[in-house]
Amino acid sequence: MDFALSDITDAAGPLTALAGLVATAILWRLKGEFASKADLQETRDRLDTVEAELERVCTRLEMLPDHEDLSDVRERLASMEGAIKVASEQVEGLRQVMVRLERPLNQLIDHHMNRGRG
User: Fold this and answer.
1) Whether the Cβ atoms of residue 74 and residue 82 lie closer than 8 Å to each other
2) Within this chain, do residues 26 and 54 fall inside the same structural domain, yes or no?
3) Are residues 88 and 55 in the same domain?
4) Half-sphere exposure in the Cβ direction for 111 (13 Å, CA)
5) Single pTM value for the model
6) Model confidence pLDDT, tens digit, residues 47-68
7) DSSP category for residue 115
8) Distance between CA atoms of residues 103 and 25, nearest Å
């Protein structure tokens, strides 16, 4: 079985055509498997939007108070609660003084108002 150069050149034309058909069939079959430029651009745009939103969320999270800040606020509130309790007791004491002074003061006012009429 001797192959001559002419045999190879005679078969090259149909083999090239067959290879082209096979390549075309493979590309046509894979056409739906690859994304178009428009699809890629849409995906990039969506990814940019998601990245920007993630950056905004991370920035907001960094600005939130941490455990130490909340502990400090808790201590300050406890301190204020004590100060408010002291102030409330002082106001109650002053209220009692005012109640004790109210009757004699009203009597003095009545006496001075009615002094010239009596």
Assistant:
1) no
2) yes
3) no
4) 6
5) 0.41
6) 999 999 999 999 999 999 999 9
7) T
8) 110
